[in-house]
Design a protein that fits this description.
It is a single chain. The chain is α+β, with helices and mostly antiparallel strands. It has 2 domains: 5-217, Metalloenzyme, LuxS/M16 peptidase-like (Cytochrome Bc1 Complex, Chain A, domain 1, 2-Layer Sandwich); 241-424, Cytochrome Bc1 Complex, Chain A, domain 1 (2-Layer Sandwich). Helix content is 42%, strand content 18%. The protein has a 6-stranded mixed β-sheet, with helices on both faces. The protein has a 5-stranded mixed β-sheet with strand order 7-11-8-10-9, sandwiched between helices. Helix 1 packs across helix 4, helix 1 (55-62) crosses helix 7 and helix 3 runs parallel beside helix 8 (206-217). The longest helix has 20 residues, at 124-143. 39% of the residues are buried.
Length: 427
């Protein structure tokens, strides 16, 4: 994350609100005439419930299918014609849209994005086509992907059909019953200025940008946002999951319940982040060095988790065992790496090395204007302040060996976990 004065966000960011409570964040980066114009809505799969899972992602598709003043695909065609790129994405906590163009086309981006905030047309024919596209995405990305399927199964067992247990793509059952009326209700409720964040980054003229934002977004009225989330109680189950699927090697997973990220516990979350980097952050990490290179216990290892999680979430560690190594042996070896850290501490210079690796990886990403937008957008939609980015380096550097050992005890060694295994399907 930002490492020097010229990269400090507080020196380059201005934020303000329009009268309709649209939050605007301007990130100046004069190194290039390219700009990224984006709008982020505080809605994603974690806002959904059983019966309409996947609706945020389906709506993202429909946002390209025309408004009262534009034809289906016209927005994309105009951006392509000027040499720009554009896309959209749905996450668990947000849905975002962006255009990357030369700064001279900022007005076009703002005009068309503001238009589809309020003037979207819900064509039954377009909806039927797009729901089939999304269903095919589900088949390719989840139903035909053994790893994606097991992660979906784990999340559902941990959280049920609520919060982070709801798949972003939705279930096939729900995709078959979502209606145009459901989509329109979702759109009218969440796609309002007071539930959105507009983020610009790059070499734009700030005065002109402010005038254009007011011109195109200022007249859109704010509206009350209703929370549709069903308040269901779900207790996590730690029952093991074992399946057979189309994999060449077994896959072992251990999923531990993790805390959500907030302002008060961010130091603890950063300790977890550094601990995971220590264990599986590259060729010099403990999993790679000890389990793959030295002991030949694993063919591969991984750690998966959300560093900035708005809700209860999971840390999943795992890998594929080497030949003649059982799933249970790999499980014990992975846990043993955390035990060794607790009992024997860090190697010489290991803390310095892992901090340097983590910081270097993050700082490098900020060379991209698009990544700056993504990082700030993901934080802001989770109600986390972008100013945290400027404190990140100092907070990572303040972490001690004692902090890492305590985190290993608290979040791995003293926790129950969901043990999952995918075995190759027998012919």
């Amino acid at each position: 994350m930002p490492a020097s004065a010229d990269l400090r966000f507080s020196d380059r960011v201005e934020e303000y609100y329009l009268s309709n409570k649209l939050k605007v964040i301007l990130i100046e980066d004069k190194r290039s005439p390219i700009i990224v114009s984006s709008i982020w809505y505080k809605v994603g799969s974690s806002y959904e419930y059983e019966g309409i899972s996947g609706i945020s992602h389906v709506l993202e598709h429909m946002m390209f299918k025309g408004t009262k003043t534009t034809e289906p695909g016209e927005f994309s065609a105009k951006i392509k014609k000027i040499g720009g790129t554009e896309n959209a994405f749905t996450g668990r906590d947000f849905t975002g849209y962006f255009q990357k163009t030369h700064k001279s086309y900022l007005e076009l981006c703002l005009k068309m994005e503001a238009d589809r905030m309020r003037n979207l047309i819900f064509s039954q024919e377009e909806f039927k086509n797009e729901i089939e596209v999304v269903k095919e995405e589900r088949r390719l990305r989840t139903d035909d992907n053994p790893t994606a399927k097991i992660f979906e199964k784990i999340s559902n067992q941990a959280f049920g059909m609520r919060g982070y247990g709801i798949p972003i793509i939705g279930t096939m059952k729900d995709l078959n019953r979502i209606s145009v009326a459901d989509l329109k209700k979702w759109y009218l409720n969440y796609y309002v200025p007071n539930n959105a964040i507009l983020i610009l980054a790059g070499g734009f003229d700030k005065g002109q940008a402010k005038e254009l934002i007011k011109k195109y977004y200022g007249g859109i009225k704010e509206a009350k946002v209703q929370d549709y989330l069903e308040k269901l109680n779900h207790k996590i189950s730690f029952k093991s999951i074992k399946v057979e699927d189309k994999v060449s090697e077994p896959l072992v997973l251990m999923s531990f319940e993790n805390i959500r990220f907030n302002k008060e516990n961010r130091k603890e979350n950063y300790v977890i982040e550094l601990l995971m980097e220590l264990m599986d952050g590259g060729f010099s990490s403990r999993f790679t060095k000890n389990l793959i290179d030295d002991k030949s216990i694993a063919l591969s290892t991984f750690i998966s988790y959300d560093a900035y999680s708005r809700k209860r979430n999971l840390i999943t560690i795992g890998g594929s065992p080497n030949k003649n190594i059982s799933a249970e042996q790999l499980r014990e070896a992975l846990i043993a790496e955390f035990t060794n850290l607790v009992e024997e501490g860090l190697y010489e210079n290991e803390l310095v090395d892992v901090k340097s690796r983590l910081l270097a990886n993050n700082i490098y990403k900020f060379d991209s204007v698009f990544y700056q937008v993504m990082q700030i957008g993901m934080l802001e939609t989770k109600n986390l302040d972008w100013s945290m980015l400027d404190k990140y380096i100092n907070e990572i550097n303040s972490i001690t060996e004692h902090d890492l050992i305590n985190a290993a005890k608290k979040y791995i060694l003293k926790k129950d976990y969901i043990f999952s295994v995918i075995e190759p399907k027998k012919l």
